[in-house]
Design brief:
The protein is α/β, with parallel strands linked by helices. The strands form two sheets. Strands 3-2-1-4-5 form a five-stranded mixed sheet, with helices on both faces. Strands 8-7-6-9-10 form a five-stranded mixed sheet, sandwiched between helices. Helix 9 links the parallel strand 9 and strand 10. Helix 5 runs parallel beside helix 7 and helix 6 crosses helix 8. The longest helix has 26 residues. The radius of gyration is 21 Å and the shape is globular. The chain binds 5'-O-[(R)-(carboxyoxy)(hydroxy)phosphoryl]adenosine and zinc ion (ZN). 5'-O-[(R)-(carboxyoxy)(hydroxy)phosphoryl]adenosine binds next to helix 5 and helix 6.
């Protein structure tokens, strides 16, 4: 079965053709048109601008992804996300499903991130599996007992992990999107640091997470250093607070990764998971990938992560989740397809 996947939940217009057979999948095309350069000057995504760009890009992107392929089903990310962005993908999927007489599959965007792990790892993932899925819009620890059997064990009670990276980058004047920029600065730091960031909810007896306090802690530290710099003009090492940016980023990233890894492993052990999987935009972070992989090894747990190109928003993951739903005949009639910014997993 060939599935056309469509993704427009935020600022990437994406389409993909994926072929699935006997629970094994192969990506035949994966086209992503990113709007990052447009939104960079605003330091974040402007929903109205994103929606207009999706309207301009959606058909050329789908056309390029299709090539000579004739899909058997259409899968679209229907939410969660920015409603005006989601509507472009959903209305296009609806129109194509009607015009081509194809069955349609409504896919949850977070489920799609989870399914990015199945693109190359379909046969490596043994159930029950615990998924850490981390992006700019969500942070969740999910238990999967089988295809279509998902249970959210915990999630962020405030900011998403990617949002924490993005806000830190904004605060430090690094730019947008923040994750890769904070990570790049962190890589420059060598040596010891006495900076301490909180590990919110780490010792709480649940799997929820919180990141907004981390950002506030960074803000106070930077403000204090700025004041100290003014007071100690000329003192060695403190003549310019900006020199500490790599150190802030290193310790900030360390705190995020520490909490994510510890909570995920705790969930995996409690639910006797056979596999731990990592996905979402923040899973492009090398320190997180390495730390979770290392800890899984120490605990004797198999670890699966997607290829880098399937970590940030793409349509191959939507097509992949769509294929597994189609195998279960979980179709949605074209006229019932609806964008839903609060689509629960
Ligand atoms: O999954 P995604 O493309 O979109 C959402 O569904 O939100 O994730 C985007 C998020 C942004 O917050 C971005 O800063 C973060 O993923 N991100 C990273 C890295 N690359 C992207 N965060 C940390 N380290 C990275 N290397
Ligand atoms: Zn996403």
């Amino acid at each position: 079965m060939k599935v056309l996947g469509i993704e427009t939940s935020c600022d990437e217009t994406a389409a993909s053709i994926l072929e699935g057979k006997n629970n094994k999948v192969k990506v035949l095309s994966n086209i992503v048109s990113s709007q990052i350069d447009i939104h960079r000057k605003y330091n974040g995504v402007v929903p109205e601008v994103a929606a207009r760009e999706h309207v301009l890009n959606i058909l050329p992107v789908i056309n390029e992804a299709l090539g000579n392929n004739k899909p058997d089903a259409i899968a679209v990310a229907a939410g969660p996300g920015l409603i005006t962005s989601l509507m472009v993908g959903v209305e296009t999927a609806k129109t194509l499903a009607y015009a081509w007489g194809l069955p349609a599959v409504s896919v949850n965007h977070i489920e799609a991130h989870i399914y990015s792990c199945f693109i190359d790892g379909a046969f490596k993932i043994k159930f029950p599996a615990v998924f850490l899925t981390v992006s700019g819009g969500h942070t969740m620890i999910v238990l999967m007992k089988g295809h279509g059997e998902m249970k959210v064990l915990g999630e962020t009670v405030d900011d998403a992990a990617g949002e924490a990276f993005d806000k830190a980058a904004k605060l430090l004047g690094l730019g947008y999107p923040g994750g890769p920029l904070v990570s790049k600065e962190a890589d420059k730091f060598k040596g010891k640091s006495d900076l301490e960031f909180p590990r919110p909810m780490l010792n709480k007896n649940n799997f929820d997470l919180s990141f907004s306090g981390l950002k506030t802690s960074l803000l106070y530290k930077v403000q204090k250093d700025k004041v100290d710099c003014e007071a100690k003009k000329g003192a060695p090492g403190y003549d310019n607070w900006k020199k500490r940016i790599p150190e802030y980023c290193f310790k900030y990233q360390e705190a995020i990764v520490d909490v994510l890894v510890k909570k995920t492993i705790k969930a995996a052990l409690k639910y006797k998971a056979k596999t731990v999987c990592l996905s979402g935009g923040v899973s492009a972070n090398t320190v997180l990938r390495d730390a979770l992989s290392r800890t899984c090894k120490e605990e004797g747990l198999a670890f699966v992560k997607p290829e880098l190109r399937y970590t940030t928003d793409n349509a191959a993951m939507v097509a992949c989740a769509g294929y597994f739903k189609a195998e279960r005949k979980e179709y949605t009639p074209w006229d019932k397809l609806k964008a839903d910014c609060n689509f629960d997993l």
